[in-house]
Amino acid sequence: MDSDSPNTDAAMQLAIAYVWIKEGSYKKDYVDTHVVGFDKFSDYVMGKDDGVPKTPEWARASAECRSGPSRRWRGNSPARSHPSLITSAAE
User: Fold this and answer.
1) Is the residue at 91 inside a domain?
2) Which of 14, 80, 82, 83 is most buried, by CB atoms within 10 Å?
3) For the whole model, what pTM was predicted?
4) What is the pLDDT of residues 40-52, one digit of tens each?
5) 44-52 contacts, C-beta under 8 A, 24 or more apart
6) Cβ atoms within 10 Å, residue 29
7) Dihedral over Cα of 20, 9, 61, 88: its sign
8) In angstroms, rounded to a whole number, what is the distance separating the alpha carbons of residues 1 and 5?
9) Long-range contacts of range 73-76, CB-CB < 8 Å, 24 or more positions apart?
10) Residue at 1 is within a domain
11) Burial of 8 per CB tally in 10 Å (0-12, 13-18, 19+)
């Protein structure tokens, strides 16, 4: 994930949930007794609602889509005048 991309943390969280749900590696006993609405959340994460599973590949594509504009805007930033405040496009 690109640190320049705002809100990609939510995509990453959904991708992690996707892996846990797909592999069954979450604490099912805890979820069964302490979580309300997990079935709806699971359906969303697995893509049953919108046909888009929230896979790690999906999250990566989401971050890459968002990084383009932030890289363009970065060039017009006042931070550009001070090298320590901005990373190069190669990083």
Assistant:
1) no
2) 14
3) 0.64
4) 999 999 999 999 9
5) 45/14, 45/17, 45/18, 45/21, 46/18, 46/21, 46/22
6) 8
7) negative
8) 8
9) 74/4
10) no
11) buried
